[in-house]
Structure formats: C-alpha cells, structure tokens
Amino acid sequence: MIYSTELFDKAREIIDERRRRAEERTSLRLNAFEKAEPRYRALKQEMIDSVRDALSSVNMDRESAEKNLIRQRERNLNAQREIKALLRAHGLPEDHLETKYTCPKCGDTGSVGIELCSCFTELLQKLAFEEANQKSPLRFSTFADFRLDYYPDTPDPALECSPRAWMENILNVCKEYAADFDTNSQNLFMFGETGLGKTHLSLAIAGEVIKKGYKVIYNSAQNIFSELQKEYFGKTDSRGRFESMVLECDLLILDDLGAEFSTQFTDAALYNIINTRINMRLPTIINSNLSTKGIEERYSRRISSRLIGEYLGLRFVGGDIRQLKSDE
Ligand SMILES: [Zn+2]
Prior knowledge:
Helix content is 56%, strand content 9%. The protein is built from twelve helices and seven strands. Residues 103, 105-106, 117, 119 line the site of zinc ion.
C-alpha cells in the first residue's frame, strides 16, 4: 500500500510524541527516586565508572585486561543489584526506572535498523482507514439503539408474519454476523425501500467489526466511486492507496448502491470491486434501495449475477422509519 507524505508525517509525529512522553515519564520517576533515595546517585555513578574503567583495559596486557574486565563487570552488576534492592525497599517494581515505550521493539523510534517498525506501518494503516472513513454519513449506530417498535406489528400475509417479527429476524442475523465476523464471513446484500434501517444495521456491524480490530471501509457507493475516480485521474497524491484499501480491507460496506450517477467508470469500478473481493474471498456488504429485479435492470449481467448469486440477500420491510423518527 502506498501512503501520502502527509500521512507519513502524521504517523511520524504521533510516534515521536509517544517517545517524548515515555521519556518524560521516566525522567520524572528518576528525579523523584533520586530525591527519595540519596544512595541512588552514587550507585548510578558507580555503574558509569565501571564502564569507564573497563574501557581502560585496552591499554593493559592480556592477563591484566581479562582480570580488569571481570572486576568491572562484577562492580557494575553489584551496583545494579543494589539499585534493584533499593527499589524493592521503597515498594517499587524493579523496572521502575526503565522507560516504558508503547512499542518496546523500536523504543518508539518507528524503525528497527533501516526497516520501518511494524508499529509504524500499523499506525499508517490505521490513519489511512480513519481518513477513508471520514466521509461516512453516520458515525454512531449500534444494535442497541435499533428500534423494532418502529416496525408494524400486524401480520402481513405476504411475509407470513408481521414486519416487526421479520425485522427482528434480520436484526438477529446482523448481530450474529458481527459477533462471528472473520475474513471468511459471507457477503450480504441488504435491500428494501429507503428508511428501513439498512444503513443503521450496516453501521452497527461496522462498529462491532472495527472494535474487533478488523480494517473496515464504510462509505456510500457514490463517495467511493468519486474517490476512486479522483485517484484514477491523478487528482490526489494517494497513488492507488484508496483503491487497494477498498479492494483489500477486511470488510467493505458499500452503502446506497444505485444512488450513484452511473457512468462507464462507475460500472467498471463496481465490477472490479465485487469481482476482486469475491476472488480474494473477502466479505462485502452492499446496501441498496433497488430490489434484485432493480439490480438486474440497472447493472450489467456480470454484476447482477454475482450480486444475486454470491451474496446473502436480506430484505428490509416495514414503513419509513425515518418518517416515524421525525414525527416523534
Ligand atoms: Zn515499533
């Protein structure tokens, strides 16, 4: 994945700040301990002296040098042991004076040797996903605030139950989907008229899946296509980054498919997204106001056959929930 220099700088800043804070905390602890335990300073000096005296071995004959090295090493270890004993006597852990970095592997420098540390690349990825999801329509929807009482409780002969019972079933499917989510989860196609809770439930799934640490892209089909288009025609400096996130994220949620302004570009992009993710066996959730019949009419056969054949269809029913909400 390719990241913009802007994102790089942002990640660098965060890592530098982590290191600064960790070192600041250590020096506060050091100062406090020095005040509480006057012997500490002398022991620290003893350790420094032992290293200096060990280095003087280079001017000695071999036998004396070996003896000196053993002696200085012993001196150094004794000082270390005494410091640990002092810490224990003060009721402090033995590593109290060591710097506790967020990433012990690189000491919050962001690199190990000449390689970027994994903490740095993980942070870059996290920032990129946050940036990609910034334009999501609704940020907070949960299963808990999904109101089944908005759906009519009277039996509907076409459903062989009430819309409420039907939607309760859909709600449970979505809850289970989120709870059991992994990158082998199936694709979902949520369809039904506007205002029946498709966006709400897919956002609730997104929230749960993100909490589990998976990388999720959530956005309207229109926004995703226009970002891809900008990138494709070189109007951003992200060079394929957004496209690889859309194609390779653990869960992609494409909201409101069918509302986009359809062009040759959007049709090709949609096919590429659906097809690539099926081939990579990565789950996708697509929401649409179009029925399966509407999908067949609107999109080419290669798109509609995959959407209908490879996705679990969830039909949303009931009255317009948004109308009920605004009437309250
Ligand atoms: Zn690191």
